Amino acid sequence: MDTLLIIDDEKSLLEVLNVVFKKEGYEVKTATSGAEAFEILNNNSVDLVITDIRMPHISGMEILRYVKSNMPEVPVIVITAYGSIQQAVEALKAGALDYIVKPFDVEELKILVARGLERKHLELENILLKKDLKEKYRFENMIGKSRVMQEIYVLIEKVASTDSTVLITGESGTGKEMAARAIHNLSRRKDMPFVTINCAALPENLLEGELFGHTKGSFTGAISDKKGMFEVAHKGTLFLDEIGEMSPWTQVKLLRALQEKKIRRVGGTEEIPVDVRVIAATNQDLKKRIEEGKFREDLFYRLNVISFEMPPLRKRIEDIPLLVQHFLQKYCQQMGKKMKRLAPEVVGIFETYPWPGNIRELENVIERIVAIEDRETITPACLPPEMLGMIRKDELKIELGPNFNLNDYLDNVAKKYILKALEMSGGRLKRAAPLLGVSYRTLRYLVDKYGLKAKEESGEVSAERQ
Question: Which of these CATH numbers, 3.40.50.2300, 3.40.50.720, 2.30.39.10, 3.10.450.350, describes 3-133?
Answer without folding.
Answer: 3.40.50.2300
